[in-house]
Design goal:
Distance between the termini: 27 Å
Helix content: 40-55%
Number of strands: 11
Shape: globular
Strand content: 5-15%
Strand order of the largest sheet: 1-9-8-6-5-4-3-2
Bound molecules: flavin mononucleotide
């Protein structure tokens, strides 16, 4: 059992939140993380109402939260009402302006967790009503920006006295969790660590690619967003494993945009077939640390156990 401002705020035994990963963090995975003592978050992603209803139901009565991609939520704000009706444990917003949504979340009495990529945005998030701020470094899987986790987290901690800060980006085992706590974070938000969890909605092909993947071979770029027709604003790019698609199109974005229709059709076929030479395997640099498909409870348990052991061992370093 670990005790931080985050575990106390949400009544947890593990200072770990499941990242609300689009297409990966469904109700079963979120519930499993919550049952293991962490905070499970369903990934509302780009907003599919039927999907969200199904996954909220799949979480049963586990106390899970819901995450949204803020610029996408702005196009279908009713999804926030749907989530709030289910009395979520938290609403988690990333990648965009909180201002249109924060008052409604506050009126519902639900804690707002905001994921940011800079100290300026961390301060703005608290001004707009975030109860918890996630400082996300560029090592992260999925979308993110430029700053690295190691210097960003303590800078955000210093800038936000009294607000719990969680670290995200590159944390996939107990050593990383201990490091996040050493930086002053009250816990970690982990995505990559759970992509290959048994309960994850990722395909079998993606899980296999994750287990075999190396942090030496991830890349950040825009090619997958262009081919998927997702209009991501700057400065956000997506970190994935490198594959034939990123090697061919990463350096040729204008050409990809010109031939988008043809490439999009081919991309959809590859995705449906589980062909990870073309389809995106969305993970971060910490993918080296994911070596098996395991139940989420085991991942949370091992992470907290090793973090506790690491913290005890570090005491021996001081003479
Ligand atoms: C497969 C995948 C999908 C993701 N999708 C989302 C998303 O829909 N919304 C979001 O806020 N963050 C998303 N993220 C980013 C996470 O919120 C988080 O910042 C990241 O996973 C932390 O870094 P890590 O992957 O090294 O643990 C995603 C990450 C991954 C790996």
């Amino acid at each position: 059992m670990m005790d931080t401002a985050f575990t106390r705020r949400f009544d947890l035994t593990a200072p770990v939140a499941l990242a609300p990963m689009a297409g990966v963090s469904g109700g079963a995975l979120a519930a499993a993380v919550t049952h293991a003592g962490g905070l499970g978050l369903i990934g509302g992603g780009y907003g599919d109402r039927a999907w969200l209803e199904r996954e909220l139901a799949a979480a049963g009565n586990a106390a899970v939260g819901v995450g949204f991609i803020t610029w996408s939520l702005a196009k279908q704000a009713a999804l926030l009402d749907l989530a709030l009706e289910r009395k979520p444990r938290a609403i988690f917003l990333s990648f965009g302006d909180l201002a249109p949504f924060a008052p409604k979340v506050a009126r519902a009495g639900v804690p707002l967790i905001a994921q940011v990529q800079s100290v300026v945005d961390a301060r703005a998030a608290v001004d707009q009503g975030a109860a918890v701020v996630v400082a996300q470094g560029s090592e992260a899987g999925g979308h993110g920006a430029a700053r690295a986790t190691l210097p960003l987290v303590p800078a955000a901690v210093d800038a936000l006295p009294g607000t719990p800060v969680l670290a995200a980006g590159g944390i996939a085992d107990g050593r990383g969790l201990a490091a996040a706590l050493a930086l002053g974070a009250a816990g970690a938000v982990c995505g990559t660590a759970f992509v290959a969890a048994e309960e994850s909605l990722a395909s079998a092909a993606v899980k296999q690619a994750v287990v075999a993947g190396s942090g030496d071979a991830t890349t950040r770029g825009r090619a997958f967003d262009i081919v998927r027709g997702l209009d991501w604003p700057t400065p956000f790019t997506i970190r994935t494993l490198e594959n034939d698609f990123t090697r061919r199109w990463g350096p040729a974005l204008e050409e990809l945009a010109r031939f988008r229709d043809v490439q999009a059709a081919a991309y959809r076929v590859a995705q449906a077939a589980g062909d990870t030479r073309t389809a995106a395997v969305i993970v971060g640099e910490a993918v080296d640390l994911v070596r098996e498909i395991a139940p989420a409870a085991e991942i949370v348990g091992r992470m907290t156990r090793i973090a506790e052991g690491t913290i005890r061992q570090l005491r021996d370093v001081v003479r």
